Amino acid sequence: MGKATGFMEFKRAKQPYRPVVERLRDWKQVMAPLAEDELKKQGARCMDCGIPFCHQGCPLGNLIPDWNDLVFRGQWGEAIERLHATNNFPEFTGTLCPAPCEGACVLGINSDPVTIKAVELAIIDHAFAAGSINPVPPQIETGKKVAVVGSGPAGLAAAQQLRRAGHAVTVLERDDRIGGLMRYGIPEFKMEKRVLDRRLEQMRTEGVIFQTGVHVGVDYSVDRLRKEFDAVVLTGGACQPRDLPVSGRALKGVHFAMEYLTQANRRCQGDALPKETELSAKGKHVIIIGGGDTGADCLGTAHRQGAASVHQLEIMPRPPEERAVANPWPQYPFVYRVSSAHEEGGERLYAVSTRRFEADGSGRVKAIELVKVEPVQEAGRMTFRELPDSQFTLPCDLALLAMGFVGPEKPGMLEALGVKLTERGNVGRDENWMTSVPGVFTAGDMQRGQSLIVWAIAEGRSCARGVDRYLMGSSNLPAPLP
What domains can you pick out in the chain, each with its CATH number? Predict the structure, then answer.
């Protein structure tokens, strides 16, 4: 490292954000850039540790100490080359990833870890601003055709890798725009869609073909798919949301989070939506059930729409401020976190469970009845026990279910293909990322279950190597995962 004592000289600098009063008035990116001098200091904090556990913490195996040192030295061109060597889309991970690499940072044993995520984002932003992100078309054409079904991060990573290997790649997306949950699930204030669009333009120039409005297994048969392509990659995600089977679930005003977030994103894209199906938090008492990132995305969206009040509910107890004994380094730290949306307002309630939704006279939700709970172990599994006399009610005009996803959608494509599923209901695969159907591969949440964007990109890259090997007999594509 160029500054071997940097970790002793410089303190960790957090990613800066725009002032709350300013950002609540628009839908622009909430993060602000770090000054270049500060970025160099943060790169200098990388401590030349003997074994960089950040490599292990990152599913992509990013060469983090290398590009930290290059940023410290001001060698931005070399830094983006080293970053792109393992990650197709560092602008996505630098914005959206929860940074398991930082949880595994050796400096984090007894100090604040290196600001890896902020440095990563700065490298790719600097590269785009400098005009150094150019198409990388293949040097040869193999004559093989590959279909990638689904255009989330796993599908895009697989598509770009396979195209660069010389295959003709077509990405099939059932929505009207490319991007999957990055397009319609991630709010504009968290990642502006121009960030996605500029990368898609690079891929188009490289020769990747994007087709929208194509619902494989519904209006595009799997027989046609198999006939037209030499290999197929399934990256449709885990889109089946977890439901909440309680009294009043069918009332008007109770919706899945993705219904709400998709509408908000469509408005930001300029789409006109029918008034009769409009979902808005304006002037409403909003209840968000689920304490994860999707719930926080709903929270920030509700703030910008002018909600009267917002409560975010979590059935688990409030996490500790610091690592618990059972959660040692280098595991990902399960600690209390405050996202940008939480900084903007609303109230978080922990260790509560929903009993029922109450209706007004017109069939709409008007309140939610909750009860406090505690986790208990029964027959080797965790369950929750209600605390006596702890029930209470909150006003609720709009309830959003943000409790995660339970796996891929089975009707249509998966049933028609006849792929075998795992015990958890995900698409099964072998060590070469192939499903039980020869020539049909899978990656991302569709085979892994709901997970992180960094895992999706890593799986897309690894699956691409499997497809390339299947088509050509061998492959030189890098694969971060077995």
Answer: 6-129 (1.10.1060.10), 145-239+406-472 (3.50.50.60), 244-403 (3.50.50.60)
